[in-house]
Amino acid sequence: MHHFFRAPDRVIIEALVESALRYKAIPDADATLGLGKTLVQIYLNPSLRTRLSTEVAAKRLGMWVSTLDAGSAWAMEYGDGVRMDTDKAEHIKEGAAVISQYADIIGLRTFAGLKDRTEDAAELGLSAFAKHATVPMVSLESALRHPLQSLTDMITIRERRLSPKPKIVLTWAPHPRALPQAVANSFAEWTLASGYDLTVAAPAGFALDAEFTNGATLTEDQNTALADADFVYAKNWSSTSEYGKIGEGLDDWQVTAEKMALTNNAKFMHCLPVRRNVVVADAVLDGPDSLVIEQAGNRQWAAQAVLRSCLGR
Ligand code: CP
User: Is the pTM value of this prediction over 0.90?
Assistant: First the structure.
């Protein structure tokens, strides 16, 4: 069975990017491909872009779409052999098997709890669901990865790069709340799998797991990292050494116009939603080199390419 959970190899990434760009040029190119098929989306955490872009993409392929939100279904138990005497009314064994009868593809969003690093690393929600589902699954973001976002980012970089191997900088940025590492992990994983030159800048205590950054240049000096960058991708993630903490005294990691001036006229990227004047200054976000709206627009073509692939094309 074909699940979409993590970065595939470079050849497949390039094929997905090509497929997405074809849909961007001709959105209704496969308007009957998914006729009679159903996508069930399950959101255990909030979403604007992923939810809407995936629904639009499925409908452009002719699919039916049903969406289930956290709080509108029974809370699920994932553990094997558990005595179910808590607030969790349904076991994933039945839940995933039942939903599989209604769906041809299941999409699932679940975030890291940010309390127990080992538990988050096990991707319990996604892996338990996949174990008991009998149809292909698409990750709509999991504890560790956000592959639909990363495919979108690869599409955007492909469209906007001025050379085959641009310098891409993923920089940590401040945030008032603890956020998962998923977008940053995934961006690093996909960028490196695509053969790009990646530098990851993060303060001490915020280094991403080597599983995702192996092959990247790593630094704790943001200004040095930004020198000659062609793309700057800003993202907050919570501390990895003090797992789930936001860190103190790091406000000067905000991406400002002065910092962007160190780059090679870099394009600015962010997955959204973004905290203005915390993560990035208005002057950058509203400036001519900001790609964030265009990037979010590409979410629909990324989702369409992935659903097409799950439908066996
Ligand atoms: N970038 C992203 O995944 O946005 P949403 O959380 O709104 O889906």
Answer: yes
